[in-house]
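Supplementary Methods, section 5.1.

A reviewer requested that the exact input to the structure prediction be made available. We therefore reproduce it here, unchanged from the version used in the analyses.
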Amino acid sequence: MAVCYLTDIEAASKGVRLILYDPSEDAVKEVLDEEYKPYFYLPHPLTPEARASIESMGGRTQVTEKRDLFTEASRLLTKVEVEDPSAVQRLSRRFKRSWEGDVPPPLGYAYDHNLSFGAPYKVGGDSITPAYEIPRELKPLFEERFREVKARDPEKHGLIERLFSLCSQPIPEASPAKLGIAGEISREDLYLAFMLARVASLPIPVASTSRRVSTWIRSMLHAFLRRKNILIPRSEELRRGEEVHRVKGGLTMPPESGVYFNTVVVDFESLYPSLIDAYNLSYETVNCGHPECMNNKVPGTEHHVCKRRRGVYSVLIGALKDLRIRWFKPLSRDPSISESERRLAEAAARLLKLILVASYGVTVRIRGLAQPALAESITAYGRYSLKEAWRMATEMGLHPLYGDTDSLFLDNPSEEAVNFLIKKVKNELRLDLAVDKRYSVCVLPRAMKAYFGVKSDGTPDIKGLTALKSNSPQLVQKVFTRCVRELTDVRNWAEFEMAKERIRRIVREAINDLKAGRLPLEDLEYSVRLHFDPYEKGVEAETLHQPYQCAVQLIDSGLRVKVGEEVRFVKVKPFKYRGKTFTVKPTILVRGFHEVNVDDYVKNLISALNQTFKPMGIAFDKPMHRDLADFM
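The structure derived from this sequence is encoded token-by-token as follows.
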């Protein structure tokens, strides 16, 4: 029997057609299943009106049994089969209450037959059987990495094992066309398409182009429910009758403003996915109907969480999280494998992170995935976890400076204390806390969600402060980099005061060089991409933004300029051009430094630097010396 990769499933005139790629023959094969009929569900028993409507559209019915997601009880339903796959959704919407009419028939076929796109299958005649399992050489390491999960959470381990066996299969060498992919695709992107197809139950052509993470998560959830014979709830059922509304977000603890040395930032790894996993947060477990679960309250809310059963969403997201953290992330840093293998592992880790990051957001607002009570429970546990970590750190004698959603800033902690806090959080909150960043110097202004830090290697880390724009000229970038470099080795207040003087000197020298014309024009150059047609913009606009002033002059000089191109220009003293006042010239048309608007560059340089350095007590627009306290 040939081993082929399932790439797609298409609706046929009768049944469905499975599209597979056979690497041994470098050929596309098809398997037709004429018996399959697309379907949706209606309540049982049918009303006379419903039965007449089904007969009028040529549908066939049978009574079937499905499990209810919320009650776990068996439900008798009427399964309505139709001939035309394209009509399933339209026909199902004729009825006030129907289920699963929105599931595309080809995907429904894959879910029902437990098929995974991108996976290898043995093909013989009209039958296909799985040809994948965990490779023998990886089995011992897999068992070691996931032994704890297997003992604590067998259901999650079973899903991890399934996903791992799929993701560890090779990717076939084939032209994109034979895999159903239009155009060219890089090896890394092809690898990601196969990973996504296998994880999210999506056809290869869809996985190679889809950018909607909500589509991925919906397909994963539907496949998981179908495998368990659980009826996929309608959107309003999933919401438990609630309307989608704004959900209170993460917690921010006000910063202790000031300048600090040896600041360690610890953060919860994959906080929201970890909360979904650790606290069993799922559509059916939040506000379950069991009286004995009512006391298992979500902190700060009226919601409670089920203690009797494991939630499907919790298992699903927990499995993806563990697969990323325990396998692909370590693999991406493993020096014993080749660089290309590390790069692919890193790509897989990024892909899983994309899904995990969206796992909370889809519960807030995406139709068919949103449930306000679930979303509120996730963020409530997030706020609780940050407060508890802050409390633990304080009781240990650590000095927390600032907390934001999933991060805690600690003032000059010992390595031993940080490790103890990490263990304590793991034991008490069942969450993974890890060191994210270390700053030799960290500046916290009064404003929340804003800080500036210098890592030990001299790299600046800026949040909420507009220090540099991507199109800032080299003058600003070079001066900023030199200033930051002066803070790299600072470890105490005395060294900080000396660094401040050196920074002031750097800026004074730059301004003096600018005023004296000692800089190359290239250091003053702005580079901006054009988003509109410069020909139309130049003719129609009464006033022109600077990039289009540049474009008009380039066009007049005989050069072609198109939408999407970058133009490079220097700010010059205002002059009249085509009856308008222009303030820039293309760099190639500037005749000399005497045309440069030096005052404007000085003003922009000081403004850019003040955004970052003013909170440190280093202001460049005031001649007098001022203390840090004046700016905090």
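The longest strand covers residues 433-444. These observations are discussed further in the main text.
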